[in-house]
Amino acid sequence: MQKANIFRGLKISALSFLLAVIVQPAISYGDNFFALLLRFQGVVEFKSNNESEYRPVYWFKTFAPEDQLKLAPGAVARVFCGNLTIWEVPDNKESVIKEGCPWSGNSNVEIISSLLPSRGSVDQVSHNSKIPYIISPRDTWILDKQPTLKWNAVPDATSYQVQLKGPGVNWSQKVFGTNKIVYTGEEPLKPGLPYDLIVEVADAGKDVSSRAEKFRDNEFDPSFFLLYEDEAQQVKDKAHKIEQLPLNKEEKAFLLAHLYETKDLKAEAIKSLETLVKDGTQKTAVYQFLGDMYQKLLLDILAKQYYLKAHEIADVSRQMERQAAVQTSLGTVEYALNNDDAAYQWFNKAKNNYTALGEKKQVDRIEEWIKIILEGSKEAS
After folding, report:
1. CB 107 within 8 Å of CB 65
2. pTM beyond 0.85, yes or no
3. How many beta carbons lie within 10 A of that of residue 174, not counting itself?
């Protein structure tokens, strides 16, 4: 994506980088290693390369090449590999992940960021339900030439003026009684060029526009881009292969979301995950992934909603590692929302879980964040 990266280089934020590394190792269907636990039955445990003890796995756990799995006699585990194959892990033995998911590159190096996300102002628009801020497409590449345009539904608003602007496009339509519409495509989108969605409340006496949005990250750009045809076809080919695998609907949708996310197709990833939410999924990873996507888009309120659901499920199922990761994410999103007390509480919970897991690097990082919050509180007082 060399030509595409000219635009995307202007759109990558420090927060996006942070979120990519704080929860799990970088994953991809391309140059980076990817292995994901699809399903398991019986006693199945794992440990990372630097750990001495095994602990229980959980649904949609991702692995690094040197991680190990241990299955009790009769246990079953299926791992999806980045080359679009499924590894049936042998039981009654210990296996190294790269044995089943071949990998010739270097092992992933986990990056522990010491940075907290940027903070919003008290009037940040994504906290304000009275403004039709853009939800989708937003800071993303898209596959569809006629995308669904979606914005925040303003209470008591009955109509909106929707505009789409960019090279060769100056489209406008009035919408009644809904907060989404499918773009007609009458003015075709062109690959690799930036387009902006603008929404205004069209009711008499209400002068409210999505352009009032104030981003907590000054480098954030909500523009979206249509993916180049050759790259789009590559994505569609891989998606087709996933659809043909002997997997259930939930597994396919989750894998498709990961595929789209690696290509910066955030809107497509969210769409795939939200189909699972509508179906009532109870997988922590689905809600955590959605929270990550929305926090990358600086839609912190939506991110928080999904993180809270992820934490609820992880808490019930006693998934300590997942609990710690979600608690960390909830701490960062509360910090971004200027809720220091809540951020402090979540970080402390994450610290306790990571301490119990023996994750010293994670503990050290969170202690630094707690220190920043406490110092900020002293200065405020």
Report:
1. yes
2. yes
3. 11
